[in-house]
Amino acid sequence: MPEVRARARGPVAAAGGSLLPAAALALLTLLLLMSAAPSARAEGTARTPARDAAGPAFDIDGERIPTYDVVLTIRPDGVLRVRETITYDFDRNGEHGIVRRVRYRDRNRLFAIRDVRTSSSTGAPARAKTLHLLHDVQISVGDRHRKVRGRQAYVIEYEVGGAFTPYSGHDELTWDALGTGWDVPIGEAAARVEAPVPLRRATCRAGEPPATVPCLRDRDGPYAIDFTQRGLRPHEGMTVRVKLPKGAVAVPPPVYASPHWDATWQGTTALALALGAVAAVARRPPGRRVGAVMIGAGAVLVAADAADDAVAHGPWAFSLGDLCLMGLALAIVGAGAVCAGRNGAQGATDTRWEE
């Protein structure tokens, strides 16, 4: 029986070590899927476009947004000032408030969402709590200790820095005025654009990209344009695009972050070699202490790689490259050494006990 256990421990140790790289690769795949921008959807999954602005609003029982009014004020310094007035119908069970997600990262482009302020004209709790997620700033408005019911009105105000994109002949603003994170239908939506110069080239499209329809447009003088849309389904928004003459407003250079996944073939090769080394380590383990040191060194490399961009742009601006893959390679080999060493020590103990 001792010989049978000794033969079985080698394959078991190798199999246990091979699960570690599989788990690491699954984690990296999850990160890649999380970092994919929502705008990069396949055409086959596109939703039906929003109804025409002249069509009837949806009549759906339960929670909904009857009216959603947004004012986008373009300042001379290039900062976009946003004021959202949201009328929300809660069901009879009530909720603690609303949650608005504002995108601050579009692929690798970064926007600065700052100076968030909230209020309520109906007396509902309107304390704001912000949380940076992978691509959005989550603005929670309400009170977790108190529920609200019926129709309530909220106002969310914030500034957006770095929203303009400079081109050779003009500067352009493209902004989703409502966001596409709402799980309820929106009856009447309006987006008003105000600028310090005459607005000659401004458009709006409603729906969920790539299936969108033009919004109804109404000019209010040379410096303001109103766009309206009725009957938006859940996760449909209004994307406003404004082109201004060069020099009309100050436009700083856009800010970009490194991709979440930025590895090259060198790091991939190091990880592949680590996978091959697990079997050799299982046969001749260098010792659990050496394995623990390798795991610690690998963790330091992964943390250093993730923190490089996160320190400058926030926790969700991490970029994993070759340093991360090399750290994973060390950790995988170290984990294999620890597992093999532990199994070997246990096998020696069993053999002495049976003798």
Short key terms for the protein model shown above:
Immunoglobulin-like, seven-stranded mixed sheet, DUF2207 domain-containing protein, five-stranded antiparallel sheet, disordered N terminus, elongated, 4 helices, alpha+beta, 32% helix, 2 domains, DUF2207, disordered C terminus, 355 residues
Sheet having the most strands: 7 strands, mixed
Q: What is the alpha-carbon Rg in Å?
A: 28 Å
Gap between N and C termini: 11 Å
Tell me, what is the CATH class of the largest domain? Mainly Beta
**Total of domains:** 2
Q: Tally the helices.
A: 4
Strand percentage lies at: 35-45%
| Main β-sheet, spatial strand arrangement | 6-9-2-1-12-16-15
What's the architecture of the largest domain in CATH terms?
Answer: Sandwich
- How would you describe the shape? elongated
> What's the overall average pLDDT, rounded?
77
Structural class: alpha+beta
Order of helices and strands: HEEEEEEEEEEEEEEEEEEHHH
Q: Stretches where pLDDT falls below 50 for ≥5 residues?
A: 1-60, 348-353
CATH fold title of the largest domain: Immunoglobulin-like
How would you describe the overall organization of this protein?
With 355 residues, the chain is an alpha+beta fold. The protein has two domains: 2-35 and 258-354, no CATH class; 64-255, Immunoglobulin-like. Helices cover 32% and strands 36% of the residues. The protein is built from four helices and 18 strands. The chain has helices at residues 2-35, 265-283, 288-313, 322-354; strands spanning 64-74, 80-95, 97-103, 105-106, 109-110, 112-120, 128-132, 136-142, 148-161, 164-166, 170-176, 186-194, 201-208, 211-214, 216-219, 224-232, 237-245, 255-256. It has a seven-stranded mixed β-sheet, with no helix packed on it. Helix 1 (2-35) runs antiparallel to helix 2. The protein is elongated. Mean pLDDT is 77; it is low at 1-60 and 348-353.
